[in-house]
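In keeping with the milestone schedule agreed at the kick-off meeting, the structural modelling team has produced records for the first pair of proteins. Each record is given below as a sequence line and a structure-token line. The laboratory manager (R.T.) confirmed that both were archived under the project's standard naming scheme.
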Amino acid sequence: MNPQLLWVLGLLAGAVLLFALNKPRMDAVALLALVALPLTGVLDIRQTLDGFSDPNLVLIAALFVIGEGLVRTGIAYRLGDWLAARAGNSETRLIVLLMLAVAGLGSVMSSTGVVAIFIPVVLSVAARLHLSPTRLMMPLAFAGLISGMLTLVATPPNLVVHAELRRHGLEGFGFFAPTLIGLPILALGIGYMLLARRWLLRDDTRDVSRPARPTLAELARDYRLSERERRLRVRADSPLVGQVLDELTLRQEHGINVIAVERERQFRTLLLMATGSTQLHAGDFLLVDLVSPAIGLLGTYQALGLEPAPLPASYYGRHSHQLGLAEVILPPESQLAGKTVQEIALRSRHRLNLVGLRRQGKAVEGVLVDEKLRAADSLLVAGEWKYIHRLQQQTRNFVVLGLPVEVDEVAPAISKAPYALLSLAVMIGLMVSGAVPNVLAALIGCLLMGAFRCIDLDSAYRAIHWPTLILIAGMLPFAQALQQTGGVDLAVRGLVGLLGGAGPYAILACLYSLTAVIGLFVSNTATAVLMAPVAIATAQSLGMAPQPFAMIVALAASAAFMTPVSSPVNTLVMTPGRYRFGDFVRLGVPFTVLVMLVSVLLVPWFFPLASQ
């Protein structure tokens, strides 16, 4: 073993130790490595910084932007709404649909981002079904990790392994190459979680503390909105058809306050905020707030040509990405004190509806429209989020106490959702066809997102996870340094000498196990950087095709199921799922072994071991 190799191995061991301690941050460790590597004399400055010119860095950055476009246009959140609607009251159906939805969305965007999006969705559905979040958060995390095994662009380790193959002058992977193994693993994961969820049952009296900001559901409960919410369909023979709301005076004469209108369009449902000029059409569904639960008897409905329609859940929850609630108080100097609700004209001046009023901590019932407001009264207003944000600027007459947690999920470019899907389809089409390199396909997708205003430049730059890019650029020179100093050859000789007589399947299992174990202490991206050259060199020393060996490393890098710190996905669900460290060990270790067995059996089936 030469002195240069010892120096490189010492640096690598130091980096791994710092990765495990997470002090300093992983991207900072990568930068330290970039400074230290040229001191070995193995690499010069140009070779050390070559990682920054790797096309995969640009590709990964572009994929972060594409994922942000899907979030800003509401596509990710609509998928969550679909999940909640389709799950019904079945926990089994919920787990199946949840894992399918998360894995599908995670195959084209960051799995960490997908899991972050779905955590509030899962908590909401769990509360509705009276389930412990403990039974649902683990399936959410496992699906997020499995999503990295579904497409080439699903996770950075796949791209790192693909790039290493191309760097050796070998054929890389196609867009759907991991899918052949990922889909069976996803099916295995769903079945495993349906059986293993019983292992998550325990006596746990700990309560999840209420967030500092209220949820929409909590605001609706505090103001007793659920007692007054109704969904009414406008019949074809209704006298309301063709009329505008200002002419109808529904609130004054019938105690019916129209909040919004659901209007069916081909392939979708439009939600229109109610204004004085809103015209009603036959077939519209009115989302209304009754002045009192006693109002709205069938006689009133029949006279107006309305019929009650099912309302399976609060419409504030169903349309939370567009329809919001906010609690507002009148400051002592407010000019609105002493005026009635009708006189302050919230709908005409601010395009918001007053749906609740609390005085001295108690909800005021009855006809609010004629209620005179007092200083320190608490008002609950409903409307589009953008108008609620504007009300925050009216500090003289209103003070917005705080926005509910759902405001974080609001999609600012929701009307651009079809264009975001088109941009995504163009990118995937170009990648699958091979018409242009993957990095150009991703950049074209980003440019289309920008051209269609699905995302702006500031949001695009914020969406890129720069520490991941720095980490990859900082670790890539280690792979080259190990190759030039003979470190890779040394690892290959040891591996082949130990298991060469046992056959390729044993070596594949060993590569998988080694990658998974390293992934417990090092990020999956850094693990792929280190293990990909070893896998390729091992295959070449055995006279076999490198692709199956490289694919094993890619799959194992995503199999971070065993501890809560082996992946950001696991760390995210730790608190909302109320998990202990042992929960991940108890469920993750057996599943990792199962995934290894499936991978070792299927990879040679789809990627022949024989060298061409």
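The second protein of the pair:
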Amino acid sequence: MDISWNLSDFMCSQDKVEVSACSMSNLPPEAAEGNIEYKLKLVNPSKTRFEHLVTQMKWRLREGQGEAIYEIGVEDNGMLAGLTHEELEASLDTLNRMANRLGATTTILRERCVDCEEAEVEKKACEVLVRRVPDDQQFIDLRIAVLGNVEAGKSTLLGVLTQGELDNGRGRARLNLFRHLHEIQTGRTSSISHEMLGFNSRGKVINYCDAQQGCLTAEEICENASKLITLLDLAGHQKYIKTTIFGLMGYSPDFAMLVVSANTGIAGTTREHLGLAMALQVPIFLVVSKMDICPPAVCQRTISQLNRLLTGPGCSKVPFQVMTEDDAVTAAINFNSSNICPIFTVSSVTGVNMDTLKKFLYVLSPAHTSAEQEKLTQELTEYQVDEVYSVPNVGRVVGGTLYRGIIKEQDSLLLGPNEEGTFSKVTIQSIHRNRSASRVVRAGQAATLALGEIDIPMRKGMVLVSEKLKPSPCLEFEADICILYHTASVSRGYQATVHIGNVCQNAIICDMDKTSVKTNEQALVKFRFVKQPEYIREGARILFREGSAKGLGQVTRVFSVAAIER
């Protein structure tokens, strides 16, 4: 659904289009599905009509995973009719009563004049965000991977967003994000760090300290947030490209944020990171940083470079430069349903446009639909292990993402495969999500699981699956691949690092349906893992690389090996 206040304007141009408060284009006709509802007016509805409206709101909230957008003063065909001041106030009052019935909150995103130059009485249309955290969730959760070249300002930007204090121009804001001493010494991220940005129901960031409450702990942020953004700070240096790919493949982010330095432009791994996100079909938006040290002419040159890159044959995106909070709302509402790519220009030192970026993150809705989420939840459990820890007085702890099903405390699952290809039965002792205790994890959510004192060899790339799946490890699998880039050609005997979800291992092409394949060519190939068997599902996305060469594909067939189950 291409629903926006001015979408038809900027979809027709690659440049930024100024929005006039008194010259609004009509919206597309209302769609039956999705989380956006048009209402001409909601003035003094009857009791029966009010109950119908509440039921309708409940449906829209379910479609939007707890978030819905109400366009007040808009007819079902998309025409912006507008309302007088009295009609608008009455309609908003009715909308608030509807939300209160469902335990939801409302936030006015913006108001706009309709035909304000010609009409005798000023009429307005209003856009309202309705939010209700689903009963089975503590908050609405989004994961955003942060990409960009080394020294583009990724960690500094996240430090300013999550801590609320501007940088001093020498990287002070990023120090709390680093996990290793060499990261502090070099200023370069080499590992994946998770940062939280919490919003309350009114759109205020609750991370920051204030005179009354002081600074909230991570547990308090989770407890008080109605929406939580998890920012995955990935490495920018080419040396750590394996870590960056693992973050995109293993953590399954909902969106990607590509940070570009205004003074250096498209340099280093910028193109590669953009290409990875596009190849993996992760929706992406851009942030141009370091505006405080960049002359306007240089900044404009960088934005022009990005426009050319985004509109090129490989991307085919529509750049939309976001300058105001109104633009941010437009970009957020249309981000999941159109081909736009928002571009933000910010400074971590002066704080310019930081509020605009926060507004975008606050309004941004989950990319998956409620039907897709429900389908994954009903499938048998599959949890992918991304991290392994040993915690004193707790035992072995694994961190990762639940791809399918539900996990509860005291559930019995199979952990594996180990180097011999076997699975072992384990019991979930406790669950933590976003650094706070939880009793249940649902499909699409990241969590850490305590397994207790167990004597089982553990590593990244293992899975926790339901016993009903009767999992079998595989050493060989077949995939339909496409070579994204290669200096020569790929043939039998070719060895590369293969990424499939959280699996990262070298594999050899032992058979293929062609003699060789070159860049932009496809083939059906058979891979064989070099070191140990893995758990692979048919239909999984595969990315393989060897030096600068890269390929993408999908697993079409899995060949299981004999496994001895304990």
